[in-house]
Every structure is written in C-alpha cells, then in structure tokens.
Amino acid sequence: MSALFLNSSFSDLFSDSDPFDTLWAMEGEVHRDVKGRVTKQFTHQGQSYFVKLHSGVGWLEIIKNLLQLRLPILGARNEWQAVARLQELGIDTMTVVAYGEDGWNPARRRSFVVTEDLSNTRSLEDVCADWPRQGVGFSSKKALIEKLAKISRVLHQDGICHRDYYICHFLMDQSPEENQKVSLIDLHRALIKDNLSERWIIKDVSGLYFSAMDIGLTRRDLFRFMKVYSGQELRQCLKTDITFWRAVDKRARAMYKKLSGRA
C-alpha cells in the first residue's frame, strides 16, 4: 500500500494480509455495486462498518468525464479528505477508521475507505416523507431547516460542493434528545476548491430543494432557509441575492419536472 491509515481497532485485521484483498473477501451485505466501486456493510469485533472499495474506473471512463467537463472520481481519497474537512468545520459526518490506496496508474488505482456505521439513524428523506401525512411540529421543522441552512452555508463558504446534495444523504440521529444530530454522508464526489464558482453552489442548493419538494414545505419555510443560508435579513437577501435564488428555483423545478413528469 502506498498510503495507509488505520485506527487501533483495525491494525490487527491487516497485520498479515493485503488490506484491499482482506476487505474484498470479507463477508457482508453489498449495498451498491457499480463499475469500479463496491459499497459493503460488515461487522468487525462486534461493530458495524461500511467500506467503499474502489478498483479503478479505467481510462475510457476518465477520458469520457474529461470530455464532458466532469471531474473523474479516481478512488477513495476524495471521500477521506472530504470527511476530514467536514470534521474540521464542525459538521457532523462519518468517522473514518481505515483508508488505503495502492498504485500509480489513476485508471487502475485500488483504494478503500472504511467508516463507522451511523447506527440508530434515519435518512431525512424517510423522516420528512411522513410530514405530509402525519404532520410535524413547528419547532422541530424550524430547527431542522435552520440546521440544514447553516450546514449548507458553512460548506459553500469553505469551498465545498457535495455534488449529490439531497436530503437522503443526511442521517438524523433517532435518540430522544431535543437537538438531534444530523450527519452528512456519501462524500465520494465532493469537490473542494479555493474559489468555488456559483454554478457549483447552485447545483448543491437546487438539489437539496428538489429533493424536498414533496414534503410539504411552505413559502415561509423556504424564506427561513434563504435567510439563514445568506446570513442576512430576508428583505436584504431578496434584494441582493435574487438572481441566485431564481437560478436555484429554476434548476430545482427542471429536475423535478424531468424526474417526476410534473411541473
């Protein structure tokens, strides 16, 4: 391995074997299997973990992405670095317990990242799907909207674009605490830049809005998000950032129409 990070609970697992081969052969539940990447849940020393195994996407995929002006994802390093950045920013996310990378050829490079299972959590997509039918308390909805707006603002101000920014990628802790933790996951496509262009920010915010269009948000809910995200009073936000918010709304509605067949 040209790069390897392990916490103490995993040092024994790879002591006499190749980490990638060990993880690949380990029994577990496969949650996703796409070209060049497998996501699997497994148990080690009585604890549940997730591993993403990257086996290389091939030159054809790299060239195709570059021709389409897309950034190819070459392995697990992107997610490892993104998790570390979010933790530095104080944003709740996954905990990496093992990471490894091997090979100089970007098309064939092997890599993996192992994270702790965020147990006793539920995706916001599932949580919010109950709202139109069961309703939700005003204070609970207000707190959640403000939390997502603050997370989004911190991400984008620090030059981070998630690129798959939907409510399904937020996991809410199901403990009875009043201020429930909300963790952002699936960071393997995250983009980190010193100067993040507005188009990337619009992509993220519109994706979040699109994914929440069927949960019964009111106009006041949307204004609350806009106010907290911008860090301005609503009147000032609508005055100075109206072009941005119109672009967000237009893109979100286009996505909704394309994927649901409804305007």
Could you characterize what this model shows?
The mean pLDDT is 90. The protein is an alpha+beta fold and 263 residues long. The protein has 10 helices and 11 strands. The chain is 42% helix and 21% strand. The strands form 3 sheets. It has a 6-stranded antiparallel beta sheet with strand order 1-5-6-4-3-2, sandwiched between helices. A 3-stranded antiparallel beta sheet has the order 7-9-10. Strand 5 (96-102) and strand 6 form a beta hairpin. It has 2 domains: 3-116, 2-Layer Sandwich (Phosphorylase Kinase, domain 1); 121-260, Orthogonal Bundle (Transferase(Phosphotransferase), domain 1), CATH 1.10.510. Helix 6 (138-157) packs parallel to helix 8. The protein has helices at 19-25, 59-67, 77-89, 124-129, 131-134, 138-157, 198-211, 219-230, 234-240, 242-260; strands spanning 3-6, 29-34, 37-44, 47-54, 96-102, 110-116, 121-123, 160-161, 170-173, 182-184, 191-192.
